[in-house]
Design goal:
Layout: E1 5-13, H1 16-30, E2 40-45, E3 59-67, H2 77-92, E4 98-104, E5 107-113, H3 117-121, H4 126-141, E6 147-152, H5 155-177, E7 181-182, H6 188-198, E8 204-209, E9 216-221
Parallel strand pairs: 5-6
Antiparallel strand pairs: 1-3, 2-3, 4-5, 7-9, 8-9
């Protein structure tokens, strides 16, 4: 029988969203590789800014989860390969992190925690994206029919949310001004997120321009297409 451990974490933040992220980070520190989708939140307080910033009260949440011990290295060979590769790369660049891995639905997710996540992620996520790209190349050599995602304590989810916000803001500017909007250079993974975020927008279209590593997304009104 597999034992489970009930985890309860309280966290605060300027908003409820920030409090939830703080709680998730603490849960991942306590139980690396925890399934974030299974975490349940209880909002204790939504916080209050107060008049002109005076009397600020932070938002507070309680996060509840169960930790299921699962030794990653006893899973399929592709999990072992991906995990070992990420650990070797992290050690090579001097990043003090702990990595865990799990496979679900044909996707091997390697989650890293520790004090050197900034070094592992790199500027604009370039390092972690490069590690993920190479991990997938290694897996393909092994003829494994899975893909690899390399994450760092929820970085992927936070970055995706931020890029979706950037995409929506750029779309509003392009539609409102009738002019193209050029975004900052991004990795291929990040550009794909922006393209996917706006692919069904009836008012704008997107394209990628420039050369690596400075390739960027352009958002422009549909009436300017062609």
């Amino acid at each position: 029988m597999t034992e489970t451990t009930d985890l309860r974490v309280e966290a605060e933040g300027e908003t409820v969203g920030e409090a939830k992220w703080a709680a998730l980070r603490e849960l991942e520190r306590l139980a690396p590789g925890i399934d974030r989708e299974s975490v349940q939140f209880q909002i204790v307080s939504e916080g209050e800014r107060g008049l002109l910033g005076v009397g600020y009260t932070p938002a507070k949440v309680v996060a509840l989860a169960q930790a299921h011990p699962e030794p990653p290295r006893e899973q399929g060979g592709e999990v072992v390969v991906a995990l070992a590769f990420v650990e070797r790369v992290a050690a090579a660049i001097g990043a003090n992190v702990t990595a865990t891995a799990r496979e679900r639905g044909g996707v091997v997710t390697v989650t890293c925690t520790g004090p050197d996540l900034g070094l592992l992620i790199g500027k604009h996520g370039q390092t972690i994206d490069a590690i993920q790209y190479l991990a997938n190349a290694v897996i393909r050599v092994e003829d494994a029919e899975v893909s690899v995602v390399v994450d760092a304590a929820g970085y992927r989810a936070r970055r995706t949310a931020a890029l979706q916000t950037v995409a929506r803001n750029a779309a509003r500017r392009a539609a409102g001004t009738g002019r193209r909007v050029e975004l900052d250079p991004m990795t291929a993974i990040e550009r794909r997120i922006v393209h996917e975020s706006l692919k069904d927008d009836p008012e704008v279209e997107t394209s990628s321009e420039g050369s690596e590593p400075n390739r960027y997304v352009v958002v422009f009104p549909r009436r300017l297409a062609g």
